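This section describes the prediction task in plain terms. A model, or a person checking by hand, is given the sequence of a single protein chain and must write out its three-dimensional structure as a string of tokens. No templates, partner chains or ligands are provided. The sample shown here is typical of the held-out split.
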Amino acid sequence: MANTPQNCESQPPRERLVQYGPRGLEDWELMALLLGTPRPDLARELVREDLRELSLESLQERPGVGLARASTVLAAVELGRRLHRQTGPPVTSPQEAYLLVADLAELRKEHFRCLYLDARRRLLASETISIGTLTASLVHPREVFQPAVARSAASLLVAHNHPSGDPEPSAEDLALTRRLRQAGDILGIELVDHLVVGRGSYVSLKELGYL
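The expected answer:
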């Protein structure tokens, strides 16, 4: 259930969608928009049911729900199911994150990569933000968080390699981590961890207590 502003009954769902975005709506409001009907009682009734069990026949048994509205609801439920199935692997620990960035160890230049995560800490996307020289990679928080905002990520994890093979974090690594954490606090997007990848090993700055 979404966390929404109070008095949502006083505004039609479409107006609230424009004002707050789809994440600001209650489940029944989203259903009401799909139905295209001003009947909140029907929308509330449907979201209390197991949407996976709905069918054209059962929907059309409801007063005011014809074939067109029933088809729209079923199409939306199926699309949501398929998008859910496309969600990437979980990233709930440094070990799971390392599996997704271990290839950085083979690169001769420093690469800075971001893993963007949903609210359940599952991978939404992996992007290389910066490629540096043999010794350094310049990264600005703006470049890190712009894709996070665009993808509606709930959190992110960053990683970069040390071409020397030694994963010991540098003073610059720690300073960058602090800047990214501060930017994430402002935007409401948590920086979960920062991995420094070496040759066959890695260091988690969260495990070291820097996050």
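For orientation: The chain has eight helices and five strands.
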